Amino acid sequence: MNVPYTLTLQSRLTEQVLLESFIEEACEYFNIGNTYFGHILLSLTEAFHNAVIHGNNSNPLKNVIIELHNTRKGLLFSVIDEGAGFNPDDIPDPTNPDNVGENIIGRGLFTIRSLADEVLFSKNGRAINISFFVSSMNLELSEIRAKELSNYLKPVYIKSRKEL
Question: Which of 37-41, 111-115, 151-155 has the lowest mean pLDDT?
Answer without folding.
Answer: 151-155
